Amino acid sequence: MSNILIRNNVHVLGEGNNVLLFAPGFGCDQNMWRFVAPDFQKAYRIILFDYVGSGRSDYAAYDSTKYSELNGYAEDIIEICATLELEEVTIIGHSVGSTIGMLAAIKRPELVTKLILIGPSPCYVNDPPKYFGGFEKEDLDGLINMMELNYIGWGNYLSKLVMKNPDRPELAQELEESFCSTDPDIQREFAIATFMSDYRIILSDVDTPSLILQCQEDAIAPIEVGEYMSNQMPNSTMRQMKATGHCPHMSHPKETIELIKEYLTANE
Prior knowledge:
Layout: H1 3-7, E1 11-14, E2 19-23, E3 45-48, H2 71-83, E4 89-94, H3 96-107, E5 112-118, H4 137-149, H5 151-163, H6 169-180, H7 184-195, E6 210-216, H8 223-232, E7 236-244, H9 248-251, H10 253-266
Parallel strand pairs: 2-3, 2-4, 4-5, 5-6, 6-7
Antiparallel strand pairs: 1-3
């Protein structure tokens, strides 16, 4: 098996010719797609993977310099596709996985033919008066510092903020366990690369047909972010979901599946 497939703990499922590659969000591994991905196995070839430093990836392959920016993770996706000899891939990205998918699409537009972006955000910091990202910079600085001072407390706080849906506390608990199972130093570097970055400048360069799935009551990626992205991306469609929180593929998988299938069917 290729070292790249081991590095990213890649799993290939499904029977179809068309390829769906699922890119997780921050602090998550491929297991978070278990409520959604199986529904596509009969019609598509499914690619699941973990970011280096997350899940069951090869932690020895982690390079602080490479992964100090999201481009490092985008390069990994391109390498996975090259190793598997994939063509015309649809990337389904959650949260920061959406930005990583967009970067891969810009680098290799002939490879990435569609993007499905779940709760995406190119910039989490407010930049008034034209942009509302959801956070003041000092709030994010505090969140990063909290990772050093109280890692478990950070995981508990962020998981509840991200997941919402308090009537299903097991989902926030799973997210918290995922956050806290990763090496704190690696997780902190990924958090900085995620939350302190500003990729608004790339949006107009994303010519790939894209679906933006925007949740209600999303504290991480407010509706203003989805609307901003939709206005900036020339070939995008935005759908407002009934789902609440930032992880509809876990909290509202049925609606997530239906909207993805609807878009794929209309754009095949």
